[in-house]
Amino acid sequence: MNDAQQQFFRELLAQRAELQARIEEEFTELRQPDTSSDVASTGEPIGLKRLLLRPTATLCIEAKER
To answer: Averaged over 44-66, what is the pLDDT?
Structure first.
Protein backbone atom coordinates (compact mmCIF):
# COMPACT_ATOMS: atom_id res chain seq x y z
CA MET A 1 0.00 0.00 0.00
CA ASN A 2 1.17 3.48 -0.73
CA ASP A 3 1.10 6.40 1.71
CA ALA A 4 -2.20 7.79 0.43
CA GLN A 5 -3.95 4.44 0.88
CA GLN A 6 -2.53 4.03 4.37
CA GLN A 7 -3.70 7.51 5.33
CA PHE A 8 -7.17 6.79 3.93
CA PHE A 9 -7.51 3.62 6.00
CA ARG A 10 -6.17 5.34 9.14
CA GLU A 11 -8.84 8.02 8.78
CA LEU A 12 -11.51 5.40 8.10
CA LEU A 13 -10.54 3.49 11.24
CA ALA A 14 -10.57 6.70 13.28
CA GLN A 15 -14.07 7.53 12.02
CA ARG A 16 -15.25 4.03 12.87
CA ALA A 17 -13.80 4.25 16.38
CA GLU A 18 -15.49 7.63 16.94
CA LEU A 19 -18.84 6.30 15.75
CA GLN A 20 -18.53 3.21 17.94
CA ALA A 21 -17.79 5.41 20.96
CA ARG A 22 -20.86 7.56 20.24
CA ILE A 23 -23.06 4.47 19.91
CA GLU A 24 -21.76 2.99 23.15
CA GLU A 25 -22.31 6.31 24.93
CA GLU A 26 -25.89 6.48 23.67
CA PHE A 27 -26.65 2.90 24.72
CA THR A 28 -25.19 3.60 28.16
CA GLU A 29 -27.49 6.61 28.46
CA LEU A 30 -30.50 4.60 27.27
CA ARG A 31 -29.86 1.97 29.94
CA GLN A 32 -30.12 4.59 32.70
CA PRO A 33 -33.60 4.23 34.22
CA ASP A 34 -33.91 7.92 35.14
CA THR A 35 -32.95 9.36 31.76
CA SER A 36 -34.69 9.47 28.44
CA SER A 37 -33.66 10.36 24.94
CA ASP A 38 -35.21 13.72 24.30
CA VAL A 39 -34.52 16.34 21.69
CA ALA A 40 -32.40 18.87 23.56
CA SER A 41 -34.01 21.96 22.02
CA THR A 42 -37.66 20.90 22.39
CA GLY A 43 -37.73 18.25 25.10
CA GLU A 44 -39.75 15.96 22.82
CA PRO A 45 -38.89 12.26 23.07
CA ILE A 46 -37.02 10.62 20.20
CA GLY A 47 -39.07 7.63 19.06
CA LEU A 48 -37.88 4.13 19.89
CA LYS A 49 -38.01 3.04 16.23
CA ARG A 50 -35.76 5.97 15.27
CA LEU A 51 -33.30 5.16 18.03
CA LEU A 52 -33.22 1.49 17.05
CA LEU A 53 -32.50 2.43 13.44
CA ARG A 54 -30.09 5.23 14.30
CA PRO A 55 -28.81 5.05 17.90
CA THR A 56 -26.85 8.27 17.49
CA ALA A 57 -29.93 10.32 16.53
CA THR A 58 -30.21 13.57 18.46
CA LEU A 59 -33.43 14.77 16.83
CA CYS A 60 -36.87 13.26 16.43
CA ILE A 61 -38.20 13.10 12.86
CA GLU A 62 -40.33 16.24 13.34
CA ALA A 63 -37.40 18.28 14.64
CA LYS A 64 -35.13 17.06 11.85
CA GLU A 65 -37.66 18.12 9.20
CA ARG A 66 -37.84 21.68 10.59
So the answer is: 80
